[in-house]
Amino acid sequence: MDVGEPGVDRLPRAGQGRPVAKAAHRLATGRQRAASLTVAALIVVPGCSPAPSQTILGSYFPSWMVCALAGLGATVVIRQVFAATGLGRTLPAPLVVYLALVVAFSFATWLIWLD
Hints:
Elements: H1 18-44, E1 53-56, E2 59-62, H2 63-85, H3 94-114
Antiparallel strand pairs: 1-2
Helix pairs in contact: 2-3
Protein backbone atom coordinates (compact mmCIF):
# COMPACT_ATOMS: atom_id res chain seq x y z
CA MET A 1 0.00 0.00 0.00
CA ASP A 2 1.27 3.42 -0.97
CA VAL A 3 1.00 6.54 1.17
CA GLY A 4 -0.94 8.37 -1.56
CA GLU A 5 -3.72 5.77 -1.71
CA PRO A 6 -7.09 6.57 -0.17
CA GLY A 7 -7.70 5.07 3.23
CA VAL A 8 -4.04 5.03 4.22
CA ASP A 9 -3.30 7.23 7.19
CA ARG A 10 -0.08 9.15 7.13
CA LEU A 11 1.71 9.15 10.46
CA PRO A 12 3.35 12.40 11.55
CA ARG A 13 7.12 12.39 11.50
CA ALA A 14 9.56 14.38 13.53
CA GLY A 15 9.57 18.05 12.56
CA GLN A 16 6.07 18.05 11.12
CA GLY A 17 4.46 19.93 14.00
CA ARG A 18 4.40 23.16 12.02
CA PRO A 19 0.98 22.63 10.40
CA VAL A 20 -0.51 22.17 13.87
CA ALA A 21 1.16 25.38 15.07
CA LYS A 22 -0.14 27.26 12.00
CA ALA A 23 -3.65 25.95 12.64
CA ALA A 24 -3.45 27.02 16.28
CA HIS A 25 -2.22 30.47 15.19
CA ARG A 26 -5.11 30.79 12.72
CA LEU A 27 -7.54 29.79 15.45
CA ALA A 28 -6.05 32.36 17.84
CA THR A 29 -6.23 35.14 15.24
CA GLY A 30 -9.81 34.12 14.45
CA ARG A 31 -10.69 34.41 18.13
CA GLN A 32 -8.98 37.80 18.33
CA ARG A 33 -10.91 38.97 15.29
CA ALA A 34 -14.19 37.77 16.80
CA ALA A 35 -13.37 39.46 20.10
CA SER A 36 -12.53 42.74 18.38
CA LEU A 37 -15.77 42.62 16.36
CA THR A 38 -17.71 41.97 19.56
CA VAL A 39 -16.10 44.94 21.28
CA ALA A 40 -16.79 47.14 18.25
CA ALA A 41 -20.44 46.07 18.23
CA LEU A 42 -20.76 46.78 21.95
CA ILE A 43 -19.36 50.28 21.42
CA VAL A 44 -21.71 51.08 18.52
CA VAL A 45 -24.97 49.49 19.74
CA PRO A 46 -25.64 51.79 22.74
CA GLY A 47 -25.98 54.66 20.28
CA CYS A 48 -29.09 53.10 18.79
CA SER A 49 -32.37 54.55 19.90
CA PRO A 50 -35.15 52.32 21.20
CA ALA A 51 -37.87 51.20 18.83
CA PRO A 52 -40.71 53.72 18.56
CA SER A 53 -43.83 52.51 20.34
CA GLN A 54 -47.29 53.87 20.99
CA THR A 55 -49.38 53.54 24.13
CA ILE A 56 -52.78 52.10 23.30
CA LEU A 57 -55.07 51.34 26.27
CA GLY A 58 -52.08 51.16 28.58
CA SER A 59 -50.09 48.70 26.45
CA TYR A 60 -47.11 49.55 24.31
CA PHE A 61 -47.40 48.53 20.67
CA PRO A 62 -44.66 48.91 18.07
CA SER A 63 -45.37 51.84 15.79
CA TRP A 64 -44.86 49.74 12.67
CA MET A 65 -47.71 47.48 13.78
CA VAL A 66 -50.05 50.43 14.25
CA CYS A 67 -49.08 51.78 10.82
CA ALA A 68 -49.58 48.35 9.21
CA LEU A 69 -53.07 48.09 10.71
CA ALA A 70 -53.89 51.62 9.51
CA GLY A 71 -52.65 50.69 6.03
CA LEU A 72 -54.76 47.54 6.06
CA GLY A 73 -57.82 49.51 7.14
CA ALA A 74 -57.31 52.11 4.42
CA THR A 75 -56.93 49.33 1.84
CA VAL A 76 -60.20 47.73 2.95
CA VAL A 77 -61.94 51.09 2.47
CA ILE A 78 -60.36 51.49 -0.99
CA ARG A 79 -61.40 47.93 -1.89
CA GLN A 80 -65.01 48.79 -1.00
CA VAL A 81 -64.79 51.88 -3.19
CA PHE A 82 -63.35 49.79 -6.04
CA ALA A 83 -66.16 47.23 -5.64
CA ALA A 84 -68.86 49.94 -5.61
CA THR A 85 -67.52 51.61 -8.75
CA GLY A 86 -66.83 48.36 -10.61
CA LEU A 87 -63.11 49.07 -10.80
CA GLY A 88 -62.32 45.97 -8.73
CA ARG A 89 -63.30 43.68 -11.62
CA THR A 90 -60.86 45.35 -13.99
CA LEU A 91 -57.74 44.93 -11.82
CA PRO A 92 -55.20 42.67 -13.55
CA ALA A 93 -53.85 41.04 -10.36
CA PRO A 94 -56.01 42.08 -7.41
CA LEU A 95 -53.84 40.39 -4.78
CA VAL A 96 -50.74 42.25 -5.93
CA VAL A 97 -52.62 45.56 -6.23
CA TYR A 98 -54.12 45.29 -2.76
CA LEU A 99 -50.81 44.22 -1.26
CA ALA A 100 -49.14 47.24 -2.86
CA LEU A 101 -51.89 49.48 -1.49
CA VAL A 102 -51.39 48.10 2.04
CA VAL A 103 -47.66 48.79 1.82
CA ALA A 104 -48.18 52.26 0.34
CA PHE A 105 -50.75 53.27 2.96
CA SER A 106 -48.60 51.84 5.76
CA PHE A 107 -45.56 53.82 4.64
CA ALA A 108 -47.66 56.95 4.16
CA THR A 109 -49.08 56.58 7.67
CA TRP A 110 -45.55 56.16 9.03
CA LEU A 111 -44.31 59.28 7.25
CA ILE A 112 -47.28 61.47 8.12
CA TRP A 113 -47.92 60.36 11.69
CA LEU A 114 -44.43 59.67 13.04
CA ASP A 115 -42.34 62.23 11.22
